[in-house]
Structures are given as C-alpha cells and as structure tokens.
Predict the structure.
Amino acid sequence: MKKEIELEVKRHSFAHILASAVLEMFPEAKFGVGPNIENGFYYDFDLPRTLIPEDLPILQKKMIKIINKNFAFEKSVVTHEKAIELFQKARQEYKIEILNDEAKDSEVSLYRTGEFVDLCKGPHIDSTGELDATSFKLTKIAGAYWRGDEKNKMLQRIYGVAFNNKKELKEYQHKLEEAAKRDHRKLGKELDLFCFSDLVGPGLPLFSPKGVIIIEELKKHIENVCKGYGFQKVMTPHLAKIDLYEKSGHAQKFSKELFHVSSDQKHDFVMKPVQCPHQTQIYASKKRSYRDLPIRYMESEKQYRAEKSGEVGGLNRVYAITVEDGHSFCRVEQVKQEVKNMVEIIKNFYSAIGLWGNHWVSLSVRDYAHPEKYIGDEKDWDKCEKMLEEVAKEMKLDAKKIEGEAALYGPKLDFMFKDSLGKEVQIPTVQLDFATPKRFDLVCTNEEGKDEFVVMVHRAILGSYERFLALMIEHFAGNFPLWLSPVQVKILPVSSEKHLAYAQKIEKLLLENNIRVEIDDNNESINKKIREAEKQKIPYMLVVGEKESQSDSVAVRSKGSRDIKNMAIDKFIKKIIKEIEEKK
Ligand SMILES: [Zn+2]
Ligand SMILES: [Zn+2]
C-alpha cells in the first residue's frame, strides 16, 4: 500500500524529475531553481536552444518513464567545499552562485535522482515510483530572469501542475476551462459592458452603456440601503494639494502610487489615492455639537493609483478606480452601534446579490510584534479591537482574529468572498479609526461645552465598482439577476416586417414602466433570434407574431428554458415589475 505523502512534497519531487528529463534531452543544460507554486511547480533552465511548445509532450513522456523506472531519491550531506567542487565539475554555475551565498562552514544537502543531482534541502519522496504518473501535466514555457533580476540572463521556465491523482488533475483542468469561459475580459467584450483604448491608455477602462447600467443599479441599491441608516451623499474633487495626504499619512503610504498633476499656472496637485481625507474636510467645515452626531457621508467617486504597468489588466488592476466609500463620524459610545449598522448594510446588500453566506469574516488586528507599522495611540487600539470583537460576537459573524491585517490607523472587520477560481478576495470592510480625527482635529462640542475628538468609522460595501463588476461577471458567468441585467426583455417579432409595429407598441409599454427592453428587428428566423438573445444572456424573450398581435398578448420565454407561455401583456408587465422590485 502506498503511504500518504504530502502533496507539496510530491510537487517538488516532480520538479526534480522534470529537471532530470531536461538533462536527458540537453546534457549541457544548466539548472536554476525549481520551487513549488500554487497547484504545481516550475523549474528554470539555461539551455542551448529555445524551447518550443512541442517539447512539452516529449518531456512529459520522459518524466513518465523516469517515474516508472522507480529511481530512488538519494540524499547525501557534504561539506560546502565538496558541494562547490561537485557543481564546478558539472559546470552548474547557477548552483555555485547559490552556494556562494551560504556560509562556508555549512553542511549542504544534495538529492540524486538517476543522473540528476540537485542542491536541495528536501524533503522528497523515497523513489519516483511513489508518484502517480497520470497526476501531473507540464503546462507552459516562459522566460524568467535568473533571480528575478532583469540585469541577469533570461532563463527558460517550464511550468507544471500536479495533484494526488488523475481525478484531481482532471477536476483542476475542468475548473480552469470553466473559469476561462467566465473570464470577465472575454464576457465583458461579448456582452458589450466595457472596453479599453490604446489612445486613452491601459488601466483606464471605458464603460459602455450596458456596463454603466449595472454600475448605476448597484449604486442605486447601495445608496437606498444606506439612506435608511442615515448616510448622506457628498461629492469631492478628484485632486487635492499633497498637504492633505501628508496630514492623513497617505502621502507616505502611497508615495510610489501617486499621480502628480501640474499646470502652467504652477499648480501642483495629486490625484486622490483615497476618499477619506476629503470627507474629513466637509466634517471640519463647521462647528459640530455632540447632538449632531453621528454624521454619515457616502460617495461613489474615482480615485487613482499608479499601479506598476506590468500588473495592470482587465478590471482587477486599473489606474482609475471608482470607489464606493462611506464614513461615520461619531462618539466613542456610538461606535458599536455604527459598526453594527454597517454590518447590517453589508448583509442586506450581499443577500440581494445572493452572495451572503459564501464568505468568512476576518477580525483584522495589529501585528503586535511591530507596533511601529501603525499610527495612533496604543490605548485607542486596544479599545477598538475589543469593540470589534464584541460586535462580531453579538452579531454571530464567526470572525477569525488575524494578526497583522489591520489598517494603518485601526483594526477592521473584513469580509472575505471567493472568486470563480476559488481564490479569496476581500471586499466589504468596516474600519475603526481614532487616528485620523486627531490628525485633522475633528471634534465635537460635548455636554460640558468642551471639544472632544470624534471617531471615524470607514466602511466599504462593494469596494471598487471595477473589481466588483469583474467578480460579478465571473460569478454569474454573465447571467446577471433580472434587476441588474442591462437588457431585461428582448422582443422578437416573428416577421420583422409584419410584426414590427406590434413589437414597437409592446416596447413603448415596457419603457413606460422603466423596463429595459430591445427589439431584435434583424431579418432572421425566430430560432436564430432566440439563440442570439440566449447568447446575450437576456432574462426574458417575448416572441410576437400573428396570434399575439391580435390578442394583445406575448409569448414569454425565459432564459435557459424551452417553455413558451402565452400571457396578456399587462399581466407580464405586472409580473416582471414585481420580480425586479424583489431583486429575484
Ligand atoms: Zn528539491
Ligand atoms: Zn475611509
């Protein structure tokens, strides 16, 4: 019986076997490093020729042979000097470079598999036969600078994925295929939600009318929920003097990510990297009494970060980010209720989208070993962390305390969701902040007529609209719920000539009821029109022909269903309005 071996050990052993196969194919190969990565491994090589995709199946076959030959993984421990001698003999300059970084009096462990000897701390399997030869696949070739430094030589990297068995590998491959179908960049184009332009620049998405509909619906929903909890809308400009961020601490934090704006009039501004400091200035614009508190502001505005250009792509990493941001300015004794309200808002919003329950909550606290990473008083921090912990308990959030995940200015509750690849993303967050009010002198006059610092509670519900839209597209695979669908109804006249007038009449009725509708008046067969509407993922199709136009009715076909139901038009309108309101 095969013993249980940790997957990580198997993956790293596959990397050695890959190197061994490469050595067979290129006896003069020089070896870089071959660590594990998520789902698999890679190995870097310096080879006499450039690899081509056709090399991968050849190497894969060689690896299978090595596995079947059941070579032992032989470990040996030698002196540093001996190791250098060995690798010099084998002309392995990269291994020697690694060795030269280590202490001369250290012991060095080596692993041999067949002809291939690697500098490696292990652990490894005992012999290659312990691996399932059907559980791995070499996936791609890429260039990679030695030690990640572009001044060094470019090596060739071979990637592979590996699992415990064939079934797990197949499951992984299936998941990847599904994710590719849901990729927001692909679907965003097909559904005409957003685009990019070389002239505008990368990292600057342009939202088409249909994309804007989804964003506006989300915004409307958030604002409606928040209004119920006393939030008021504010608007702040997209740039400011750097002084604002020097005072808030963001200038230091985002020093490498600020966009600077200057003009012939000697203006010197930065594009805002965050919203919070701007909103503090509305609070500070007049004297506040304790009776006015809490004061709650919200806005959905753009902010700007100069991300590294290599990291920009799709909607997940962009330069211009539309952030839905809100703050409550309140007294210490009001903090708990404020946090509770915000958690309720988050719960309400995510329930409407059907994502509530598909998450876990992180109580993100300080890194107690490094207090210098944070601003503010230690006493305030203690108080804040305790309050959040209490709220989490009272609201049964089942929060996990994670050290070192707090914000610069205070602890927070982070809500973690999963994307379509199962990767965790943090979206909503509630953050306590005792530090910013002190920096900006945000006070209220208390019962004794004295100034008292307020507390700032930051909250984000969907984070940025860009990232959230990407997540939603992939989560729903483009099949948005009715209330978010850019086109809710498509009218399909059986004959684009004979039934167009009746289709237009229906369209007018729907538009009067604020239902988003389009007519497909192409000269195509009705089946083709249905297929097209399915592809566009439109929730309702209304087929109208002779029978319908004579009886003021429509033949209703919902997305993904084969059933067609005849319905009086006013009955259909009532039904769809109800479904939109209920956010089905
Ligand atoms: Zn190793
Ligand atoms: Zn904030």
About this structure: DSSP finds 18 helices and 28 strands in the chain.
